[in-house]
Write a structure and sequence with these properties.
By secondary structure, the chain is of the alpha+beta class. It has 2 domains: about 140 residues, no CATH class; about 130 residues, Galactose-binding domain-like (Jelly Rolls), CATH 2.60.120.260. About 40% of the residues lie in helices and about 25% in strands. The protein is built from 7 helices and 11 strands. β6 and β7 form a beta hairpin. The chain binds calcium ion. Calcium ion (CA) binds next to loops.
Length: about 300
């Protein structure tokens, strides 16, 4: 019997919890929901490249540990603790910030061990647990390398792409932008969705450097749903602001030779979302990332 014993599945563990006193059932259910919700939030934030994913993943793990601490025996505890086993994205988040997060993982593992309470593990079980922890840490280290490589790629893209795009998760540009990415083209039609996780209620600021070989005239047309505005060297050129469906507004301005800073602000309140930026200059020009000489 002892030799044939296998770890309990989560479904069986949750069934067993239903036989426990009501307050224990409720506490496990709360921790279970929180763990699942935070894991989902962590995954969304991670996919969006946004801050806060690490914290959400940690909260998911801690909620799972809380559920495990309420278990009646070690099999049930192990199954409930498995709630905190993060999905692939969350694992990357946990492994993404170098030694700090690895320390967090080790800390969580220690807390989990304490939460499981006094154990009478067999030597074989202890070996298996150690092997599993070692394998998990090795896997996380691999994911850490992967994340670092991805982050370098993102930064390189931002440095090369002509449009630097700052993203706010509200339509009012309130607070700091949540993330910054590089776009080759400023025009997008998101339909009923958005560029990241927010379907409605987001804002973008696009910045680029327009370099003219000689004096010329810039014609700029903004089509957007909802509002958008374009600025050249800090002065507004096109005003297409306000809550509205797809609408185009154009403007033009003579510009001297050299570098000019372009900025397009855009926000989406609800419903469909699109932004089209059409540039036309009657002399040779190029768009490049905003940087030295274009401030
Ligand atoms: Ca809209």
């Amino acid at each position: 019997m002892r030799g044939a014993r296998r770890s309990l599945g989560l479904r069986e563990a949750l069934r067993r919890v239903k036989e426990r006193p009501l307050e224990v059932q409720q506490a496990v259910a709360r921790a279970y929901r929180r763990s699942r919700e935070r894991a989902s939030v962590a995954e969304n934030l991670w996919l969006a490249g946004a801050p806060g994913a690490l914290e959400a993943a940690r909260e998911s793990l801690e909620a799972a540990i809380e559920a495990a601490s309420l278990a009646s025996d070690r099999d049930e505890a192990a199954a409930l603790a498995a709630l905190g086993l993060p999905s692939r994205a969350v694992e990357e988040v946990l492994g993404a910030r170098g030694s700090t997060s690895l320390r967090e993982i080790l800390g969580a593992a220690r807390r989990l061990r304490r939460a499981l309470g006094p154990q009478r593990w067999t030597a074989a079980q202890v070996r298996r647990i150690r092997l599993a922890l070692a394998a998990a840490l090795l896997g996380l280290l691999g994911l850490l390398v992967l994340f670092v490589v991805r982050d370098i790629q993102r930064r390189m893209q931002l440095a090369r792409a002509p449009w630097a795009v700052s993203y706010w998760d509200n339509a009012e540009f309130e607070g700091s932008p949540r993330t910054q990415v590089g776009w080759q083209s400023p025009s997008h039609d998101w339909g009923e969705e958005g560029p990241l996780s927010e379907v409605d209620g987001f804002a973008l600021r696009l910045e680029s450097c327009l370099r003219l070989e000689e004096s010329g005239t810039l014609r700029l047309r903004l089509g957007s749903d909802d509002g958008s505005r374009a600025y050249v060297d800090g002065a507004m050129l096109v005003d297409n602001w306000g809550d509205h469906g797809p609408r185009q507004v154009s403007g033009e301005r003579p510009l001297g030779a050299g570098a000019h800073r372009l900025r397009v602000d855009y926000y989406e309140r609800g419903g469909g979302a699109q932004l089209h930026v059409d540039l036309d200059v009657d002399v040779p020009y190029e768009l490049s990332p905003v940087g030295e000489g274009c401030d």
